[in-house]
Description:
The protein has helices at 21-24, 30-43, 104-120, 137-146, 162-168, 184-189, 197-207, and strands at 3-7, 13-18, 124-127, 153-157, 174-178, 192-196. With 208 residues, the protein is an alpha/beta fold.
Amino acid sequence: MPKTALLSLKGEKIKDIKLDDNVWGITPNDQVVYEHINLIMANTRQGSHSVKNRSEVSGGGRKPWRQKGTGNARQGSTRAPHWVGGGVVFGPSSNRNYTKKMNKKERRLALKSALTYKANDKEIVLIEKFEIQTNKTRDMLKLLEGLNLKGKLLIVTTELSENVILATRNIANIKLVLANELNTYDVLYCDKLVITEDALKYVEEVLK
């Protein structure tokens, strides 16, 4: 059973916490992780790309020259696809839907696999609680420096105070999520997973 140290906001060790093997110590399934990452990225696509076909391009109503006698190939419109400025054939449409689906068991397996990788790589920082008395960015930077946290951070907690939100929103490498919003992509993207004790209990209760 993996263990991790529970730290105070000053970076002092309080005690060791045993992590649930059913969440943090499984055999990772890379294929499910790959499919879940694909799903998350596909579902965030707007799908707003669109081109005009020959019926939507303005102009081209008049036949460019008469049918016979010019020596040119017969043409019916200057907005045909082979003309410069003409419509596009088989181009992307805003009607396309990129969303994908995945079973709940597979989603949980992907998330547990990602959490297991973090546990194996010692990239989990467990803190007693995550709060700050002011909403100043410099105070948040001092707090993170005291915990020796650098790089891309994913901070997971059960509740977000206004001070925490305001103090972190101007720091580019920090993402705040609630425990019930934790997902595979965010876990794998971050360098360190910073999670509170309450959030840890919630995640283990939901996923085990």
